[in-house]
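Predict both folds.
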Amino acid sequence: GFPSPADSHVEKRLDLNEFLIRHDAATFFVRVKGDSMVDAGILDNDVLVVDRSLAPRQGCIVVAVVDGEFTVKTLGCGKDGQTCLEPANKKHSVIPIRDGMNVEIWGVVTGSIRKYK
């Protein structure tokens, strides 16, 4: 018979571990709760792929612990040059990182997984 026209668009079998994880011993999955990153395409109930072995840099989406609470934000730099955590939703405020705050960058977000049904 004739090959299907879709055959040229089919890729080899995709291994999600190979596709999403670079450093398996340092990679974790975190479920999102909230809407602070919706404009970055991260929605409530998404699962984030977080690599704790990567050094966070300005512009990276990170999982941070601020005063004991986990949050997902973009690592940024405010107008005054101060490091901050920036939401991707105008309804939420930027979190400036000040001396004396208990802040830990827990890991760098490298991907996300969303289930539709």
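Second protein follows, with its predicted structure tokens after the sequence.
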Amino acid sequence: MITREQLVEMFDNMAKETPWDLRKPLVWGYFFTHSTRPPLEAVVPLLQDQGYRVIALYLEEKDSRKDPDLWWLHVEKTEVHTPDSLHERNQALYRFADEHGLDAYDGMDVGAID
């Protein structure tokens, strides 16, 4: 799980290393994983109802045929976060993944609005 302390460090780094105004909206990506596609497909409408945009649903490339399948769901939302609000969001998404039987909520990324 991503800790609040890790988020504080992330925000400090973004403030130092990027030109972004962290008080303005950014594009936040959130990622879920599962060993099969159908459970991820099933949660898409639920996430869309919460204002998320679906970016991709894909099977990760394997190094070996023997490796287990790993499906990824990438959703995005344009919003403003602080370390505390992002920590709350992550906790909610961990619960969401658990409640819907997904293997994992795998975390987030962030980018500027194009």
